[in-house]
Design a protein that fits this description.
This protein is an alpha/beta fold and 431 residues long. The chain is 37% helix and 15% strand. The chain has 15 helices and 16 strands. The protein has helices spanning 11-20, 78-88, 99-111, 124-139, 156-159, 172-176, 186-195, 221-232, 251-256, 282-285, 304-317, 320-344, 372-375, 380-392, 413-426; strands at 4-5, 8-9, 45-49, 52-55, 60-63, 117-121, 143-147, 178-181, 200-205, 235-239, 262-265, 276-280, 352-356, 359-363, 395-396, 405-406. α2 runs antiparallel to α11 (304-317), α7 (186-195) packs parallel to α8 and α14 (380-392) crosses α15. The structure holds pyridoxal-5'-phosphate. Pyridoxal-5'-phosphate binds next to α4.
Length: 431
């Protein structure tokens, strides 16, 4: 059994892995937490503080997993702990309306122009699943169009076509109501909407796809698809579960100035508390029960603990200084890594860096990724070797060659310098 991660002792993680794998499939409750794509064993994390995570063997890592998105202000953000501890004193859950739901709804609708009404759920998956049902109920149509390689959570209709592909157990009928089209290709979308004219309920996308590398939407692509959705009378859903509150406070829709009909949120909105939300035009949202006929429910939806965490994080994120800092640190990291790549170009494999706001990817491919087809050319083996070298130098990246890494506002200038030094040290050995 591997008990070291390139020089670090990871004996306790190894022991726990051995035990947990007998009880929880793969030892994880979400598959990409395991190191199955990069080899070796997952590390058991004991605690996090700011930009760092600490494993059970006492190793410390500068963390860019960021809990896969939520940890935008870093780990162990004290005001959230205080708000949640305070909220739980009065009881965790009532199954009745609570003032904090109103406050969070006010905070969202007053700061994100496309959100006239909102529903809170418990995960990004739920937000997407519910918004698709709502679009179908509103339009009376069944088909949805999504972009190859976008990840929208693990509900049947959108999993069949995502980058986290190849799941068995999805009925043919669920998959057959989803039409796939390539990202960054307006002509293909136009042909698709034309072909299925009158049958499509919604077009859904990650405005900046984050699980096939970080894919930058090309100039005019998002506005063009907005126009096409209007032309064909189709609901436009932005899945901003990852980009919301990350690429800007108002998400990708604020960054690129394009207004969807519905938006899904999750991740950073909860600041670590399990949350999902979907919202948009009043005219559409009023089709939800009990006003309309589209059903969506949830025992834990809008619970006071999650609401208190989300309100705390939103309050903090409303300070524009947070985004100035995130941009500064992300740019520093990006520039530093690019400089190393440029210096070492003669001796390194081809590496592309991609970044939008505080989400970035280190992509082992000859060309930038503009769609799913390009992402298939990513050299996963080279990434796996690089990943372990970074770990050895105290930097934790997501253990997959394609998922976005995240900078937080807790990363210090020194963290970034150390990360660039680790990147430099890891580079020669990946040839
Ligand atoms: C863009 C996007 N949509 C939806 C989801 C699903 O969210 P959750 O894992 O909270 O169900 C994710 C999660 O990675 C995501 O990145």
């Amino acid at each position: 059994m591997n008990t070291s991660t390139a020089g670090k002792t990871t004996r306790k993680s190894a022991e726990l892995n051995e035990q947990i794998q007998k009880l929880i499939p793969g030892g994880v409750n979400s598959p990409f937490r395991s190191f199955h794509e990069v080899g070796g064993q997952a590390l058991f994390i004991e605690r996090g503080q700011g930009s760092k995570v600490f494993d059970v063997d006492g190793n410390v890592y500068i963390d860019y997993v960021g809990a896969w998105g939520p940890a935008i202000l870093g780990h162990g953000y004290a005001p959230i702990s205080a708000a949640v501890s305070n909220a739980i004193k009065d009881g965790a859950l009532f199954g009745a309306p609570h003032k904090l739901e109103l406050e969070l709804a006010k905070a969202l609708t007053s700061t994100i122009p496309s959100i006239e009404m909102v529903r809170f759920v418990n995960s990004g998956t739920e937000a997407v699943m519910s918004s698709i049902r709502l679009a179908r109920g509103y339009t009376g149509k069944d088909l949805i169009v999504m972009f190859e390689g976008c990840y929208h959570g693990h509900s049947d209709s959108v999993l069949a076509s995502s980058s986290h592909k190849h799941s068995s157990g999805i009925p043919e009928e669920a998959a057959s109501n989803t039409i796939r089209t390539p990202f960054n290709d307006l002509q293909a979308l136009d042909s698709c909407l034309d072909k299925y004219d009158g049958k499509v309920a919604a077009v859904i996308l990650e405005p900046v796809p984050g699980s096939m590398g970080v894919v930058v939407p090309e100039e005019g692509f998002l506005q063009g698809l907005r126009d096409l959705c209007t032309k064909y009378g189709v609901v436009l859903i932005f899945d901003e579960v990852l980009t919301g509150f990350r690429v800007a406070y108002g998400g990708a829709q604020a960054l690129y100035g394009v207004r969807p009909d519905l938006t899904c949120f999750g991740k950073a909105l909860g600041g670590g508390m399990p949350i999902g939300a979907y919202g948009g035009k009043r005219e559409i949202m009023e089709h939800l029960m009990p006003l309309g006929k589209v059903y969506q429910a949830g025992t834990f939806s809008g619970n006071p603990l999650t609401m208190s965490g989300a309100l705390t994080i939103l309050t903090a994120l409303q300070n524009p200084d947070v985004y100035t800092l995130l941009e500064k640190r992300s740019q520093q990291l990006f520039d530093g890594m690019q400089q190393v790549i440029d210096e070492k170009r003669h001796s390194s494999s081809a590496i592309q860096l991609a970044r939008v706001g505080s989400m970035f990817a280190i992509i082992f491919a000859d060309q930038p990724v503009r769609n799913y087809k390009d992402s298939q050319k990513i050299d996963e083996k080279a990434f796996a070797r690089f990943f372990h070298k970074m770990l050895e130098h105290g930097v934790m990246l997501p253990p997959t060659a394609v998922d976005a890494a995240c900078v937080s506002a807790a990363h210090t200038e020194e963290d970034i310098e150390q990360t660039i030094a680790a990147f430099r040290a890891a580079m020669p050995q990946i040839d």
